[in-house]
Give the backbone structure.
Amino acid sequence: MGSEVRPVSAWSPADAGDERESLVVARGLTKRFDGFTAVNGIAFDVSAGEVFGFLGPNGAGKTSTMRMVAAVSPVTEGSLRVLDRDPASDGAGIRAQLGVVPQENNLDEELSVADNLYVYGRYFGMRRSQVRDRIPDLLEFAQLTDRGDDKVTVLSGGMKRRLVIARALINTPSMVLLDEPTTGLDPQARHLVWDRLRELTRQGVTLLLTTHYMDEAEQLCDRLVVMSDGGIVAEGSPRQLIAEYAGREVLEVRFLPGDRDAVLTGLDGVGSRQEVLSDRAIIYGEDAEQLTTAVSRRGVEAASVLVRRASLEDVFLRLTGRGLIE
Amino acid sequence: MSHSGTRLLRGSGKSSVGGVPTHALGASRIVERNLRLARNSWVVFLSGVVEPVIYLFAIDVGLGRLVGDVVGPDGTPVSYAAFAAPALLAASAMNGAVYESTFNIFFKLRYGKLYDAMLATPLTPSDVALGEIGWSQLRGLAYACAFMVVMGVMGLIASPWAVLAIPAAILMGFAFGAVGMAVVTFMRSWVDLDMVNLALLPLFLFSATFYPLDVYPRALQLLTQLSPLYHGVALIRGLTLGAVGWGLLGHVAFLAVMAVLGGVVAARRLARRLLP
Ligand SMILES: Nc1ncnc2c1ncn2[C@@H]1O[C@H](COP(=O)(O)OP(=O)(O)O)[C@@H](O)[C@H]1O
Ligand SMILES: [Mg+2]
């Protein structure tokens, strides 16, 4: 189905050289809550037109970072510039140009779907007629055209999420922040949301998103940082990160609890690197066939052996020794 | 599907926005949001108008007959109903504003994510505070107007100054609403909210509401003058009875300072709670 969204260029022709302008510049960015450090001196740049991701497990500091960028949470230490402005002194000016999709939906539960868009546009100081003109397009973008008069409370989780995303576009933002856009959605609803986000990326809009799903990060992000315990542990495109930290292919050797030691002894020295979890060993290498042959030649007593491509999950495991989803 | 041609996205870049809102308008957007919701709840407005009528009749035909005349603010005798009616208006201005700014805001702060959504836009905590109190005073306005009409019909208005009782009631609403909102940001549970009623009752009884100040003992008189309700009652009573003097400006100043201080504290506290 076609969309209402008319393509726009990623950046103005004047900027179209090699040097893309940075919409977010963070240096030594730190957030503390009563002495607890949630974000610990991170540095990153977000360029115009890219989809930039924060990948990390719960508690890594993603939301705290997003809230500082959204100018709704004061920076404790370090420097942060958003859209060339200082959030401390010009928060309202920054917020006027951002679209924000928070981790938890915060729709106005007492209002209808269309009224949610209407009052939100008014919060931005848009003229009544301007907001009314935009509502049909946004409803179509959210695939909620027939639901304008419904209360938001009757919408499904996926519909609410799409409405929050559409609402974030009401002010024609320069950049859209999405905090875990698909967490808690079923697979079908997730794919619909991804589809809407790709529609935005096709138009070259700058997206800043957080996720703890490695598939989401791989599918959507041009570039991402991996976060753990308030810090950034790696940065690059999904491909670069996988190539650098995980290799190409992976062999997962599952074992029964009692066979653990025997299996690990048998696997000793196979592949370029190994990670051992409670129920399986993960073996990294360039060629899965070689790995499989090596394992079977040694007669390892595995419960199952699985070959797959290396993923961002492996990158995270390598960097932190932990999985992304506990 | 054909495109409407409306641009949904600006694309990337630091291009300046056409419609950055001017700040003064921020609060009015919040009033507008509440108004949109209230389109279906005009019953609430109606009840606000009917209630004072019932009260006034009760006082006029009941208590008033029993008590007869009392000494008015300027020493001349007035009917008890004419004496008590402005106090009723003042008390309801207080109760309405406090109820809105405590129970209503407590609920929104605790259960709704409404304010989070508002503050992700250019709106600020001050806009939220001013907008919510301003909204509650729209109701206050309807209430005060209805009350004055009924007072007029019942012959309880002694002077054209009485028209100013309406803005006076609104000023009271802002003063009590602002302090109520500042207080509610400190509240943790519904039990804390019961303290609100506990605080309002003595105010209601000891603010020279239903009898003149000089019936109190001297010590209590001084204490009474610290009561914001006392200043509201004295102001509105002076206006409806036509006992107008420079002293009334003192009451106005008291309420204005209360509104400003309450508003500043409320906005700061909202920022601390909502923008950690
Ligand atoms: N308002 C707050 N007060 C105290 N601690 C907080 C607050 N917000 C977040 N934290 C803590 O900061 C850490 C990072 O949280 P968050 O930024 O929400 O991580 P993520 O979004 O990656 O799950 C967590 O340990 C969390 O408990
Ligand atoms: Mg989070």
Chain A touches chain B through 69 residues (CB under 8 Å). Residues 187-202 of chain A form the longest helix (16 residues). The domain at 247-310 of chain A is CATH 3.30.70.980 (Alpha-Beta Plaits). Residues 4 and 137 of chain A are 6 Å apart (CA to CA).
